[in-house]
Amino acid sequence: MKQADVLIAGAGPAGLSAAIYVQRSGKKAIVLEGNTYGGQIINTPEVENYPGIQKISGFDFATALYGQAAGLGAEVVFDRGIGVEKTAGGFILKGASGEEYAGSALIIATGARNRHLGISGEDELLGRGISYCATCDGAFFKGKEVAVQGGGNTALEDAMFLSQYCSHVYLIHRREGFRGEPGQLEALRKKENVTFLLNRTVTELEGAEKLTGVVMTDTRTGEKTSLPVSGLFVAIGQEPDAGVFREMVSVDEKGYIIADESCRTSEPGIFAAGDVRTKEVRQLATAASDGAVAALAAVKHITEMESAS
Ligand code: NAP
Questions:
Q1: Residue 206 forms beta bridges with which residues?
Q2: Is the pLDDT of residue 45 over 80?
């Protein structure tokens, strides 16, 4: 069994920031990650709102964060946590590899995953026209007509990114107001190959082997319109990825882990950081901030446990 002071689930900005603070506090962090490091930010083309950095690609940011945590001695293990158990001295995380990891405190920083439209054919056409990541898959649609569904920052960024490669981008949003940043919205409105299709949602997918078009339903009138596109980028927000940890701590009605501003959950010794926890603002800066707060709270918890024993 691998032993750490603080176990961290998730190597996104919150988890890696936590690892940096744990290591700098003189404690040992093991970070468990089921996919790749960096979380959602690794697929963000440009980060322009992280204080102190004018512009950086999400990949470069995530890689620098990973390098910083690893350089300080944090052990990042690519193994998915499939079970968690409370012990007398803390917690044991069971990895999908069969390895087990023990720690005196646990930080859950598993983030959020992309929400699906939930329509027929969405899973079958994944990778055949349906995508949840414009930066990952955009190049496959060079010179083609594509659609993006969504009205938040991700949808606006995706549409802007795709407009550089695709012949035309249709931005489909279910209402007229956007959640995304006004500056980004204005930049998009100026693009000649971007068309806004408002008060509509994609309700049907066309094509058997690969996507050939989408059917949109007008959210006010119910009228249906077909749009021939070879790609649909779904950017309609995220859902918490609390996974196995949901059993250990209290969650809200949407499944986000209930944690206070100190990142403390309902279970002593377990902390939640970043997009997976209940909070108002889910941004890169707030994820990093949570990581620091959760790490210092976890270290304090360990110190209190040590002085009590
Ligand atoms: P989001 O802000 O939650 O926006 C989701 C969008 O999808 C909303 O416009 C929502 O419509 C729409 N939507 C939700 N469910 C839908 C459904 N079933 N059918 C059709 N449309 C649906 O999600 P996000 O854009 O992924 O952003 C998530 C967070 O990350 C936000 O806080 C965002 O600011 C942040 N982010 C930041 C950056 C950056 O700073 N560079 C980049 C990306 C994301 P309604 O508006 O009608 O609810």
A1: 213
A2: no
Give 309's pLDDT tier (boundaries 50, 70, 90).
confident
C-beta 152 within 6 A of ligand 1: yes
The number of beta carbons lying within 10 Å of the beta carbon of residue 104 is 23
* Residue 183 CB–ligand 1 contact under 6 Å: no
Residues 6+ apart with CB under 8 A from 182: none
- Residue 252: strand pairing partners: none
Active site residue 137: yes
Indicate if ligand 1 lies below 6 Å from the C-beta of 179: yes
105: confidence class by pLDDT, cuts 50, 70, 90: very high
CA distance linking residue 51 with residue 103, whole number of Å: 32
What's the whole-number average pLDDT of the chain?
Answer: 96
Structure confidence by residue, pLDDT tens digits, 169-220: 999 999 999 999 999 999 999 999 999 999 999 999 999 999 999 999 999 9
| β-strand partners of 253 | none
Pairing mode of beta strands 145-149, 168-173 = parallel
Q: Choose, from 5, 79, 123, 137, the residue flagged as catalytic.
A: 137
Provide the token pair at 178. Answer: 């956007």
State what percent of residues in the chain have pLDDT above 90: 91
Mean pLDDT in residue range 12-25? 98
Q: How far is the CA of 179 from the centre of ligand 1 (A)?
A: 7
Per the annotation, the verdict on 166 as an active-site residue is no
How far does residue 151's CA lie from ligand 1's centre (Å)? 6
Q: Is 136 annotated as catalytic?
A: yes
Q: Are the C-beta atoms of 264 and 134 separated by less than 8 Å?
A: no
Distance 168 CA to ligand 1 centre (A): 22
